[in-house]
Amino acid sequence: MHELRRFVVQIGSIALCLVAFGVGGQTAMAAEEQGAGEAAGAGRLSRETETPPAVICGGCVSPTYTSQGKGSITPYGRIELDAIYSNRNTNPLDPGQFNGYATAAGKSSNSSATFNPRYSVFGLRADRTDGKHVLTGVVETDFYSQTDNAGNISPRLRLAYARYSPNNNKTSITAGMDWTPVMGLHPNLIDFSIMGYNGNLWQRLPQVTVRHQFSEHFDGLITAFRFERGLSAIQPQTQRRTFDGFGVGGIPPNGCANGFACSENAFNDPVQMPYFGTRFGYNGTGNMQGFTIALNGAYRYYRSAPTGNVLSIPSGQNINSFLVGAELVVPITKRLKFSGELAYGQALGVEFFRYGQDRNIGTGSEVRTLVGWGELDYAHDRDTTFIAGYGFDNPSNSDLQGTVAVPDQQYLLNHRSYLTAVRHIWGDLFLSFEWNHLMTKWTTGESFAGDNFMISTWYNF
Questions:
Q1: Which of 12, 68, 194, 445 has a CA-to-CA distance to 290 between 20 and 30 Å?
Q2: Would you place residue 62 in the very low, low, confident or very high pLDDT band (cuts 50, 70, 90)?
Q3: CATH numbers and ranges of domains, the chain
């Protein structure tokens, strides 16, 4: 009888779970607006649970604490189409997405054109609060999957995090995949790369971040974050530490190539430590409303491992990666605003959207760089905005001496300028035009320039 009672309870819980998600039942709808996603107005509160179910989980075995605040689930997203024309190869640093976005001016002079729907986004946001405790969860996808495979565009995880505050957002902790918490200011250009390789340091990363609002003006955070490690790009799919003499017999066993001990775990991660970072900011109020200045810093140490690719970057070196930088937003008039960043760092790679730019290909040592960007945003009226900006990524030339001079791999200077016009059409429908001019000097000694033109339309919901 006891087992039968448990079975009936579980069946009832499953039914409640299905009703909660609208499978075979109806849920109360609300018209209250709520922002969600990257863009302002990207989300609308379209589902509110007045009486949450007793169980809501995968497998329906964990209770939901329905008495602790009211909850809601908000679907949101963006439907976007980008028409892109490039007068030469403007994405040599990610050739798998050559029609997707701009990164640099490459050696190839070929032009290309495409319609690109990949920047469309779909997400779900869950909120719960009792006026003091605040709990938020976000899961979001876009369609920039691993390669530019036309006609087979698979979704890709973009965000997946939970954020909890015990004191009405004065202090919060975020765990999961979110935007890089340091150097978090971004330019407003339409290009999907958000000026990666051209002065803007960004990524979406697994992290644990604690934020605190010290006063009306001052806030700060501490964080640990790192890019998810993978082996899919390594052939063969093994990644071991450099042999250190502590294998069987103190020497690599016979038949083990490249100086590795066969007994070592093939999935041993050489980059075990995350970045540890912090950010402290000042936000203006009153007459200084909209003014922001922030200082950022991050550091990580690791011992480099073999890359496993055709470049075979030397390994077994102690790598110290650091970043220091500042963000600034200054309202000049009610319609004109300046925003920008300036940063200096060493061995900054995938965690900051700088793939393959962290170490010297020839020597394996760290590469220092100075990066920055600035833009002016002018709101002509309520429906029309004009943007003009410039950004640069300037690695130390001395750190790139001795590198392998491979075309379209590492640059001595990479910068761009851009002009953007955004027009509100009706509701949440927008139209935009953008011109990006890219100028790149490579370690081969060659310099190229290229132009990328985009017409974009998107509908936020």
A1: 194
A2: low
A3: 1-65 (no CATH), 68-229+269-460 (2.40.160.10), 230-268 (no CATH)
